[in-house]
Amino acid sequence: MKTTMKKYKNIGLALLMGCSLTACSSMDRLANVGNPPPMTAIENPQLKTDYRPVSMPMPAPVAEKKQPNSLWASNRKNFFKDQRASDVGDILTVLVNIQDTAELDNETERTRNNGETAQLPALGGYEASLGRILPQAIDPASITDLGSTSRSVGSGTVEREEEIEVKLAALITQILPNGNLVINGSQEVLVNFEKRILKIDGVIRPEDISTNNTINHDQIAEARIIYGGEGHITDVQQPRYGQQVYDILFPF
To answer: What domain range is 138 assigned to?
Structure first.
């Protein structure tokens, strides 16, 4: 009971905070009625109070040992420089081209018939006295006769078609002991209060990186691709918070 009351209390506080934030946002929008959206002034981002320097994974420093009268460097694997990503902190382009089409049609039917019959022709001579015990006279040859029939029919159809074609720059964040590379990439685009979000994570082989430093999404193991959005249009497409809470709590 206490756990349920605490849950309701947390939900109420969350709704109250959401309403407060909505009211503040509405006041800001009302203050700018009739005015064009203001342009952001050009300023040094490092002087802003909320500025945080970017911290990215970087490769471990490698000491280079130079040999006199030699064109070969001790920290290089090839004579000609390879422009493909190969170390922590390097960037490569992921080509996401998903064109999936699936169609499933299932139909099942199940039928079962059961029957049980029990007789009591003799019971030490007491079978003739069963009529005195039971409300009506019975036939000892058909004491029990049970039967059941069940039938289940089901059908289902699934038709799906997805198409996504985007490019995304990803960063190598880790080199595994077997030489495979862990990549992570994210991209956000904000247009008219609608933000498009694209993220990708996974593990790739260095051999699969093409000469133009790109890799296809189907060559990424353990791929996690997220393509979605946030904003006014996305909010309209989602149920309101009250309806979502009602759907969770309503037991019927």
So the answer is: 106-157
